[in-house]
Amino acid sequence: MSKPSPDEVYKMMQDAIGEDNMSGAMKKAYKTAPSLLVDHGISCEQSIKSEDNPFDMKTSVLIFLTASLSLKDDACTSAFAQLCDDVGISNEELISLIRIVKHAASSGVIGSSEVLLDFMSKRSNSTSA
Q1: SS3 letters for the chain?
Q2: What is the pTM of this model?
Q3: Which is the most buried residue in 17, 51, 72, 108, by most CB within 10 A?
């Protein structure tokens, strides 16, 4: 794969999600740090658009949306939401995706609370001794 130019990557993004749906950061990178935009384009080609990607485009978009929701990246969520109609993602599927991400986030909070749960356990044991 030859390295794309910043203009080629920008055009690819325009064609995929539309100028209006591109994040401000991507537009600014194009003007001020075009190598970042090129890196982003290469990353896309090596992940979602890779011939080695075992997932179809619908599944790839769902995975991307899951990650962008988890990372609280509104720009990426907005950009990839534009692809939902193209790849056949229904509102019901998006609602389930949101519920799954919400559950995972909640599970993460419980998982991260082990230190506090240990503290509370020790506190309970010391007050009963």
Answers
A1: CCCCCHHHHHHHHHHHHCHHHCCHHHHHHHHHCHHHHHHHHHHHHHCCCCCCCCCCHHHHHHHHHHHHHHCCCHHHHHHHHCCHHHHCCCHHHHHHHHHHHHHHHHHHHHHHCHHHHHHHHHHHHHHHC
A2: 0.78
A3: 17
Q: Indicate whether 94 pLDDT > 90.
A: yes
User: Average pLDDT of the chain?
Assistant: 91
Same domain, 68 and 30: no
Residues 42 and 69 in one domain: no
Cα 25 from Cα 37, distance rounded (Å): 10
| Residue 51 domain-assigned (yes or no) | no
Is there a domain that residue 126 lies in?
yes
Whether 10 maps to a domain, the answer reads yes
Based on the domain organization, do 127 and 70 belong to the same domain? Answer: yes
Give residue 1's pLDDT band: very low, low, confident or very high (50, 70, 90): low
Could you read off the pLDDT of 106-124 as tens digits, one per residue?
A: 998 888 999 999 999 999 8
